[in-house]
Amino acid sequence: MPSFDDVLNAFILLSNFVLLPALTYGAQLALGALAVTLVYSILRFANFSQANNMAFGTAMTILLTGFFQSQGWTISGFPTALLVVPLAIVITTICLLLTERWVYRYYRINNAKSITVVMVSIGVMFIMGGLVQLIMGPEQQIFADGARFIWTAREFKAFSGLSEGLALKTSQLTTILLALLAVGLVFYFLQKTKIGKAMRAFSDNEDLALLSGINPDKVVRTTWLLVAILTTIAGVLFGLDKGFSPFQYHLLLLPIFASVIVGGIGSPLGAIVGAFVISFSEMLLTYAYKKFFIYLLPTALEPDSLLQLIGTEYKYAVSFVILIIVLLVKPTGIFKGKVL
Amino acid sequence: MTYLTGKNLFATYGTVPILRGCSVGVNRGELAVIVGPNGAGKSTVMKVLLGLLPISEGEVLLDGKDISTLSTQQRIGLGLAFVPQNNNIFPTMSVAENLEMGAFLRHDDCQATLDEVYTLFPILFEKRQQLAGQLSGGQRQQVAFGRAMMTQPTVLLLDEPTAGVSPIVIDEIFANILALKEANKAVLMVEQNTQQALSIADKGFVLVAGKNAHTGTGKALLNDDEVRRDFLGG
Prior knowledge:
The complex is a heterodimer of chains A (340) and B (234). Chain A is mainly α. Chain A has helices spanning 4-43, 50-71, 80-109, 114-136, 153-160, 170-192, 194-204, 206-211, 216-242, 246-251, 253-263, 268-286, 290-296, 315-329; strands spanning 149-151, 168-169. In chain A, helix 1 (4-43) crosses helix 11 (253-263), helix 1 crosses helix 13 (290-296) and helix 2 (50-71) packs across helix 9. Chain A is globular, with a radius of gyration of 22 Å. In chain B, strand 4 (57-62) and strand 5 (65-66) form a beta hairpin. In chain B, strands 6-7-8-3-9-10 form a six-stranded mixed beta sheet, with helices on both faces. In chain B, strands 2-1-4-5 form a four-stranded antiparallel beta sheet, with helices on one face. Chain B contains ten helices and ten strands. Chain B has helices at 42-50, 72-77, 95-102, 111-120, 122-126, 137-149, 167-182, 194-200, 218-223, 225-231, and strands spanning 4-13, 16-26, 30-35, 57-62, 65-66, 80-83, 155-159, 186-190, 203-208, 211-216. With 234 residues, chain B is of the alpha/beta class. Helix content of chain B is 37%, strand content 26%. The two termini of chain B are 33 Å apart. Chain B is globular, with a radius of gyration of 17 Å. Chains A and B meet through helix 7 and helix 8 of A and helix 2 and helix 3 of B.
């Protein structure tokens, strides 16, 4: 039998390398997935440009961060990116409203089929991706400043006396807090405010919403505003955590869509749960468990290999596989969404 | 001249003429039904009165004023309310929220109207927190009527309110419609249940191929031999 300390060490090890990062990554995906869900259920198309919109919001944040830093408008220890996020949200909102006005509106007014609008959104995705790459360049950029850790692994070890440390990064804490706040606000908005209820009514039964005198333009504009808020925050949190590169953001589309479908298409709660299913699966399946089992198993049974189920380079395949399994076994997703 | 009047209406779907000079009308506190065979243009009359479909000739008058050129939303603002045949509720919203959406255009306090709806349909008050999609067919129809009443309309247009519900529920729905009429609304409905509808209606319009074939009080039409032979099966 392993000692109590060994079990504790194993758990801390897993928390530090899998559970906490998965929680953070899941929260980032959840915000993106919630944005996709809002567009899907209110504007009625699957928005393929979501991940690239996140890249745009993040790019704006990075530019503003640079400007604020050059002016010395920073708070010591606090990520400047979070200071400028409200401004970046404003710019992203304007950008999304322009795509609505110049692109999507035409198809909406002409009652285009959903699949047509999906194709259009793929076009927007490429334009948005190109635009971001043009502005930012293809290289990876780190824009997190301020204190990197709330507490380090070393501080944790000194505090707890264990041989494993659980570090808490600033980016992890901000992600979890900000994601909770953003999701809470969106749900409050949809459940309690008049325009939020009108958005749900519009999503439920568009014709009846029009007959009730709900202004469709206002619903569409408000939806894009909410989407811009979620999109920018999701992008910035992901960037603070893992750095920014346009291509890496582009790849986020797969786990985001997987989250939406796994949770149940069109269900906001499903999108959030789906995001955590995807993030935890990705992390749990690509982690090398050797050290974890060294703590738990007797010396005689110590593993020789890394005990890694899948290499990290295949982490996107995990989303794919979960996606396929869900579509085969339970096409409506966890929360009974629509079937594609 | 009636409170809501559609006079000599002509309308087409694309190039197909649907309405070819039909006239309907209803006064406040009155129930009028439009009956007729399939494809006679019954539902189209509703769409034309609401402005969901433009007319090529004729006019729509509300309280003596021509509203033919107004948009649907403007007509709703003037006191028209419509209960569509299908999908006439917001299924994933609570009963209370459904009613609230009905009052979307109003900026005053709508508690009095809400109380009125709850008095008319007490079951809705009981189930106000429940999702409308979970209610029975008859109760859903009450939600739909209640939602339409929230704008404090003077005219209610009902498109086949009893379509696809069981006979017991039909009686319940007709009772609700009479309650709307008692509340001094002008009620105009399209109905497939010709016999039952005419028996409670003050006025009936029998439409055939987009024109009025017979017009009269509900009782007179029921007793009209020609109407009985052609539409009521003897």
